Every structure is written in structure tokens, then in C-alpha cells.
């Protein structure tokens, strides 16, 4: 049952808002999402795939989204924090194979992304376990896990290969827009998936 044996999350220090913060952020509301961070060797390989492409995603921004939450206030963030602790306390780490580098969401893009083809069972179980406690999550479209690499604005040839994402933690991110350049995705807290 979710809620038993919940772990404490690693709360990360928050920096000052970057650039011209949105009005909602000034009122204490933040634009947030829950995702699996991409780091290490996979992040380097992602950087190589997107090199020279328009809209290449900076390495610190690489992630695989689980739930986009929109603008949430401080009290709601506390509740989300407790929920994420509970859910990750009941799910162990796993490996997610990514086998296609392809235009996303369709053959004409505009994005280029790594995808797993068909989502593996451990990822779907984790995704489905998160939703009951995240009613603000945007689920208007079927869940299609992917790691965005760039925004070339056109369809590029599909590449197949073997890219591996180790899923051992989740992050609650704050998405901050900036006057110039890509948004800044700031981790607010991390939630480790530990062996059951």
C-alpha cells in the first residue's frame, strides 16, 4: 500500500529565479514536472546525437518526463513531495532500453528524441502508480516516454541502436523560462528508487 515506509527525499537548495520570472512564480507558484534525470554516459551520447542541431537540449536539461504538473504552490508541493516519497518507496531501480532516435511526436518532428519503442512494464507500473496522487498531471494524450534531444524543426532519418537509461531516482523539477536561450530545469528534490 502506498504510504508505508516512505523515504525522506533529498531536498536540493533552491537558487534565485533566473531572468524575468513569470508572475505566477513571484506569487510562490512554480511550473513543475516529475521526471527521470539523464546523466553519465547516456547524457554524453545524447549530446553527441544532437550536436550541431537547432534547439539541442543542454546536458543538465536532459530527462524523461513522467508527469507535467503545471503551476503549483508551496502547500501543494509539500503534498507532492510526500506522495513521491511514498511511491518511490515501493518501486526498485530498473534499466530502460532506448532503441530508436527518431522524430517526435510524429514523422515530421519538430523534435528529435530517444524512445524505447514500446514502454517496458517497470516504467508503466511506475507511471501508473504516480498518477493517483498527481491529479494536476496532464494526461490528455497517451503516455509516450521519450528523451528530447533537439528541435530541428523537421523530420530526420530514424536511427536504431542501444541506449540505456538507468532508472534509479526521480526528480521534481522547476521549469524556469529565460529571456534568451532554453529554459532552465532546476531539480527541487530527488527521490531514490531503492531495491525492495
From TrEMBL:
A Pfam family hit: 2_5_RNA_ligase2
Class of this enzyme: hydrolase
Active site: 63 (proton donor), 146 (proton acceptor)
Entry's EC annotation: 3.1.4.58
Coiled-coil region list: none
Signal peptide: none
Keyword line: Hydrolase
Short motif (HXTX 2): ranges: 146-149
Catalytic activity: a 3'-end 2',3'-cyclophospho-ribonucleotide-RNA + H2O = a 3'-end 2'-phospho-ribonucleotide-RNA + H(+)
One annotated GO molecular function: RNA 2',3'-cyclic 3'-phosphodiesterase activity
Sequence motif HXTX 1, location on chain: 63-66
SUPFAM superfamilies per the UniProt record, alphabetical: LigT-like
HAMAP family cross-referenced by the UniProt entry: RNA_CPDase
Family from the record: Belongs to the 2H phosphoesterase superfamily. ThpR family.
Protein purpose: Hydrolyzes RNA 2',3'-cyclic phosphodiester to an RNA 2'-phosphomonoester.
Name of the protein: RNA 2',3'-cyclic phosphodiesterase
Amino acid at each position: 500500500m502506498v504510504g508505508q515506509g516512505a523515504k525522506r527525499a533529498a531536498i536540493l537548495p533552491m537558487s534565485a529565479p533566473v531572468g524575468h520570472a513569470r508572475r505566477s512564480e513571484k506569487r510562490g507558484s512554480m511550473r513543475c514536472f516529475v521526471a527521470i534525470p539523464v546523466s553519465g554516459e547516456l547524457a554524453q551520447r545524447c549530446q553527441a546525437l544532437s550536436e550541431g542541431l537547432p534547439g539541442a537540449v543542454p546536458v543538465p536539461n536532459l530527462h524523461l518526463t513522467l508527469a507535467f504538473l503545471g503551476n503549483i504552490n508551496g502547500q501543494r508541493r509539500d503534498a507532492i513531495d510526500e506522495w513521491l516519497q511514498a511511491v518511490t518507496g515501493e518501486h526498485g531501480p530498473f534499466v530502460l532500453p532506448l532503441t530508436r532516435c527518431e522524430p517526435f511526436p510524429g514523422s515530421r518532428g519538430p523534435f528529435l528524441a530517444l524512445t524505447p519503442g514500446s514502454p517496458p512494464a517497470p516504467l508503466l507500473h511506475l507511471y501508473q502508480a504516480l498518477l493517483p496522487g498527481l491529479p494536476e498531471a496532464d494526461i490528455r494524450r497517451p503516455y509516450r516516454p521519450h528523451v528530447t534531444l533537439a528541435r530541428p524543426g523537421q523530420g530526420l532519418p530514424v536511427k536504431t541502436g542501444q541506449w540505456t537509461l538507468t532508472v534509479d531516482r526521480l526528480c521534481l523539477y522547476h521549469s524556469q523560462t529565460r529571456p534568451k536561450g532554453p529554459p532552465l530545469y532546476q531539480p527541487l528534490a530527488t527521490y531514490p528508487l531503492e531495491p525492495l
